[in-house]
Amino acid sequence: MKIVILGGGESGVGAARLAKKKGMEVFLSDKGTIKEEYRKILNEAGIEYEEGQHDETKILGADWIVKSPGIPKKAEIIQKIHQKGIRLSSEIEFASEFTNAKIIAITGSNGKTTTTALIYHILKNDGFNVGLGGNIGKSFAGQVADENFDYYVLEVSSFQLDDIQNFRPYISLLLNLSKDHLDQYNYNYEEYALAKFRIAENQENDNFFIYNKDDEMSMNLLEKLEIKAKMIPFSTKVMLNEGGFVQGENIEIKWADDFSMRIEDLSLVGNHNVANSLAASIAGKILNISNQSIRNSLMTFQAVEHRLEKVATIGGVNFINDSKATNVNACYYALESMKQPTVWIVGGTDKGNDYSEIEDLVKKKVKAIVCLGIDNQKIIDFFKAKKELIYSTSSMEEAVKISKSLAESGDTVLLSPCCASFDLFDNYEDRGRRFKEEVLKPAEQKNIN
C-alpha cells in the first residue's frame, strides 16, 4: 500500500514511522520546513520525504493519505485529494486502525488539554498501562508504533475529527462548545459544533459518551443527533439522577457506587475546572477506579503548562501564562478568575472572534490592554472606547516590556491571547515559552556614565 503523510511535525512523523513499521510504502511531504529533530528521525527510519513543496504526482498516486490537523481543509491539495476520491485520514484515525487499546477521547472548545491530562493522571495513578496523545504530548501513531499500551487518553480537535472514518473511542467526552475556528467552518457555529460531535458518531451501545448538560449548543444538537453510546451528563447548575453534578460545596458522581468530594480539595481552581473535574471523575468511575484513588488524583494533579500557569511574582506583580487561551471563551475563564487589576496581553491570528462576550469582564478587571500581533486593529477598534490604555506591539519582548512598565505591585500581567499564535509564533507553546523567557529576563541595567 502506498501511503502519503502530509505534514512533517509530531503527528506526521509518528504516522510515517507507524506506516513504515506496518510495511507500507511511505512518502512524507511538507510544504514548509521540517525541523531538524524530525528530519533526523525520518532519515534514520529510511523514510522518503520532501519539504518546501508538494509533489502532486506522488501525493495523488497514494492509496491512503494522512493529513496533519494544521493543514486547512480548504487547501488546494486537499481539494484535489477529495476530487480523486483517495482516502484522507487524520493521524488519530490512522493510528486507531493498528491498536486494540481502549481509547478515551476528549474534545470541546475549552478545557481539553487540562481534562485529558487529568484523566491520564487518574489512570496512571491507579496503575493503568496508559499512553497520552492526540493534541498533547507524543504522537498517538508514534506510540502505537513503539509501545504496547492497554489504554490511550487522547485530546482530539475538530480538525482531527474532520478526517475520521472509523475512529471509535471506548469513552468519548464533549466538554463544551463555543465559537472557535469559525474561519475553517464557513463562519457557521453549528457546522463547527457538529464536527466536535463526530467524536461519538462511530460509537456503539457498549461505549460511553460524557456530555455537558449546561452547554446550550450541545443540548440543542443532541435533540437532532442519534448517539448510540451510553450517554452520561455532567452539570455545575442542576442536580442529576445519573452523572456528575455540584451539590452545595461538593462534587457528586452518581454512577455505580456514588462518589463525593469537597470542591475546596480539588487541585484545580475555578468553576470551569469544577466541570472538568466532574467529567474526568465520570470517566474514572466507568473504568471502575476506586473512589479513594479518584479523590487522591483530583487532589494531586498539577495544572498543565500554558493554561493559567503562574510564571513568577516580580516586584509584587503576578505574571500568568494562559497562552493556550486561543479563543474568546477560554479567555473569558481566565479573566473571570482574576482577583487583581490586570494588564492583559491579547492578540494573534483572529478566528472570527466576537469580543462582546468578554466586554463586561474587561471593563471590570482590566486596567490596560497590550495587543500582540501583526494586525491588532480589530481588538483596538473594539476596545478603544472602553479602555483608555491600549498599546499595539508586534513582538513578545515589546509586549512584556510595556506590560511591566504598566503593572504596579498588587497587579497581574495576564497573557490570554483569544487568538491563534501563527502570525508571530510556531504555536501556542512557543508563544507561552517566549512569554516566560521575557518575564524572567533580568531588569535592564541603566547606563551610568
UniProtKB/TrEMBL annotation:
Q: What is its EC number?
A: 6.3.2.9
Where do the coiled-coil regions begin and end?
A: none
Q: Name one Pfam family in it.
A: MurD_N
Domain Mur ligase central, by residue range, is: 106-283
The alphabetized UniProt keywords are: ATP-binding, Cell cycle, Cell division, Cell shape, Cell wall biogenesis/degradation, Cytoplasm, Ligase, Nucleotide-binding, Peptidoglycan synthesis
User: Cell wall biogenesis/degradation among the record's keywords?
Assistant: yes
Q: Name one GO molecular function term.
A: ATP binding
Quote the catalytic activity from the record.
UDP-N-acetyl-alpha-D-muramoyl-L-alanine + D-glutamate + ATP = UDP-N-acetyl-alpha-D-muramoyl-L-alanyl-D-glutamate + ADP + phosphate + H(+)
Compartments, as annotated in UniProt: Cytoplasm
Q: In which pathway does it act?
A: Cell wall biogenesis; peptidoglycan biosynthesis
- The UniProt record lists the Mur ligase C-terminal domain at 306-418
Q: Which InterPro entries match?
A: Mur-like_cat_sf, Mur_ligase_C, Mur_ligase_C_dom_sf, Mur_ligase_cen, MurD
**What is one GO biological process annotated to this record?**
cell division
Q: Which residues bind ATP?
A: 108-114
For the keyword Magnesium, the answer is no
Function, as annotated, reads: Cell wall formation. Catalyzes the addition of glutamate to the nucleotide precursor UDP-N-acetylmuramoyl-L-alanine (UMA).
Family as reported in the entry's similarity comment = Belongs to the MurCDEF family.
Q: Which HAMAP family match?
A: MurD
Can you say what this protein is called? UDP-N-acetylmuramoylalanine--D-glutamate ligase
